[in-house]
Design brief:
Strand content: 15-25%
CATH superfamily of the largest domain: PAC-like subunit
CATH topology of the largest domain: Rossmann fold
CATH class of the largest domain: Alpha Beta
Radius of gyration: 20 Å
Number of domains: 2
Distance between the termini: 43 Å
Structural class: alpha/beta
Helix content: 25-40%
Order of helices and strands: EEHEHEEEEHEEEHEHHHH
Number of helices: 8
Strand order of the largest sheet: 1-3-6-7-2-8-11-9-10
Oligomer: single chain
Number of strands: 11
Shape: globular
Length: 289
């Protein structure tokens, strides 16, 4: 299958005003599903519509990301396949319209995926690309979520409000690798990551998604109603506080994080807390159920 056939428009490329493309891939690296949650939230808040789909057979390993079946009273109603979908919309009051590419991180054929994104950028006149994600960090849940950024050489003016990643050398996901490709063709791009407390990074983190949405709203110069995310973040904070209260070691670990941040106690060893993290994650899953 040629690269041109990997992108299927619903009704041709939409006519948009200087759009930004937001890319939120569920996978590596998106701790707490922050990027996926923020992308889905803005998809509905900005009332975007499906504009195109990417060929799932070309990019997704269905053995790693199993399709989901819906069966009622012995009848197979449907099978829901993992999908990479492109949504488009107009952001009221903003100078830029928006495109959102949502779905699982491609398992294969990254080069073809990069060229497909390049194709849709050219077809819609994309002004810049913003990727959304999150990573586990030695941060306590009692402090505001930080949004970090890393730009390609063409995108130094994007998202001035986020903090720069000081340094990193290690594995990356498809979104970060895409940034390098976009730089080669002169498309500005910035990667945004929320810092999610490592001891709760395995469960959805609405506080991280809320922080991400607020940074994006500021970038677009608009106000976004985040009431639902705020309520979810408050409930999540209460649940984590309750879980921590039941584990003295967890309280001590979080106090160490706070001292490290507030007093700059660089000499203090930051605990990994893997066993405590497992207990808290188990508690949160129970609360969610």
């Amino acid at each position: 299958m040629s690269d041109e056939e990997l992108l299927q428009w619903v009704a041709g490329a939409p006519a948009l005003v200087d759009p930004y493309l937001l890319l939120a891939l569920d996978g590596f690296v998106d701790a707490g599903s922050v990027g996926a949650t923020a992308g889905m939230f803005l998809r509905h808040r900005w009332r975007t519509e499906l504009a195109a789909t990417l060929d799932g057979d070309a990019f997704i390993d269905y053995r790693a990301r199993r399709p989901r079946a819906v069966i009622d009273n012995g009848v197979l109603n449907r099978v829901e396949m993992p999908a990479l979908e492109l949504f488009a919309g107009t952001v009221d009051g903003a100078d830029h319209d928006v495109l959102l590419l949502l779905g699982p991180e491609p398992d294969m054929r990254w080069g073809a995926f990069f060229r497909t994104v390049e194709q849709l950028c050219q077809a819609t006149g994309v002004a810049g690309v913003i990727t959304l994600g999150a990573y586990p960090a030695a941060m306590p849940h009692t402090r505001p979520v930080r949004i970090m950024r890393a730009v390609n050489a063409a995108g130094t003016s994007l998202i001035p409000g986020a903090e720069d990643v000081a340094g990193y050398s290690g594995p990356v996901g498809a979104a970060t690798a895409l940034q390098a490709h976009l730089n080669e063709i002169g498309v500005p791009s910035v990667g945004l990551w929320a810092e999610v407390p490592h001891y709760i990074s395995g469960s959805p983190n609405p506080a991280g998604a809320l922080a991400m949405v607020r940074v994006l709203a500021e970038a677009f110069g608009v106000i976004v109603d985040t009431t639902e995310l705020e309520a979810a973040a408050i409930l999540h904070r209460e649940q984590v506080d309750e879980a921590v209260a039941e584990h003295a070691e967890a309280a001590e670990m979080i106090a160490a994080f706070e001292r490290h941040l507030d007093e700059g106690e660089e000499h203090e060893q930051i605990p990994s807390g893997e066993d405590i993290a497992a207990e808290i994650e188990r508690f949160l899953r129970t609360q969610g159920e």
